[in-house]
Each structure stands twice: as structure tokens, then as C-alpha cells.
Amino acid sequence: MNKRIAVLVILSLIFLAVFGAAYTYGLFHSEIGDDLEFDVADWVIKINNTNVTNGSTQQFTITDVHFGGDANVRSGKFAPGTAGYFTLAIDPTGTEVSVRYEIEIHEEEFGNENIKVTSLQLVSGNTFTKISDSRYVGVIPLSNQRVNTIRINLEWENHEENNETDSVIGTEGADLEVPVTVHLMQYLGEEIS
Q: Residue 190: which H helix or E strand, with range?
């Protein structure tokens, strides 16, 4: 009988230990059973009225190119000895974060070394910085979001020794492509360099 009582006491103690541990665990363990909801900042950017925020590379044609008046070149045409410009309008309206943009111009892809980008000018908006001969970086802060309009000035230098190449371009009737890449990203306060 003493064995029976000892076994019952041991089983009772084990039961109490297991029950006590489960109860203690229940006091310190809790779960949240509801889904968390929070707002994500909007990212909506347009370049020259083209939405470029769908996560892929966008190509578009800039048809609003202005060429300076020259009595020897038809209006609206680009030829040796003329200059012109086009604009990029970066519109962050509706974006809820600061925006950093990088403009890179690939002059080596013009097909004629006498066609050059002579300058980039900020027409309206915030400032931008020239990082290298072909790269410019600008920031559109959340506190001052407005359309940044950048004017890109081109010049086709006239060199008599390049007449053959110029003639080939002129007789093919090709459009001049200006390879410009614009990278857009969230600005987090990093130093621009």
C-alpha cells in the first residue's frame, strides 16, 4: 500500500508540475490575431507627361525640339552649324516621398562626334548638380515638390573635314536620337556626389 500511495503522490506531483508549467506559459504567451494595416507612400512620377512608375524601362520620343533660327537651314531642322534644345519635365505630383533623379546623356551614341550637348539648364524647380561630363543629379524634396523642368542644349558643330559624315546623315533622312537615361529613386538624405 505504501507503494501505491507513493505512486499516486508522484503522479499527482507530475500532474501538478505539468499543469503549473502550462498555466505559467499561458500567462506569458499571447498572440495578436488581427491583421496589421498601414499606409504605404505613393510613388507617381511622370517625365514629359509619361507615367514612368510601373517598374519597367520606359522609352518615349521627345518631339518638342526647338532649333535656333538660321537663314540657311529650314525651320525645325537640325544641321551642321545650328543649335537647339529640348526639355525634360520631371513631375513628382502625387509622390509622398522625396525624389532623387539622375540624368545621363550618352553623347558617344549620337553617331557624329560634332553633335554635342553644350549644357543643361534648370528652367524651373529645385537645383541639380553636375557629377561628370554626362551625369547630373537632382533632388526634389518632399517639402518642395514641384515639376522640375530641365533644358538640354545641343549644338551641331560645322567642321569642313566632317562633310562626308554629315552628308551621309542628311541623305539617309534619319531622325537624330539623343540617348538620355533618367534614373528615379527615393531620396533618403544621402550626400550627392
A: none
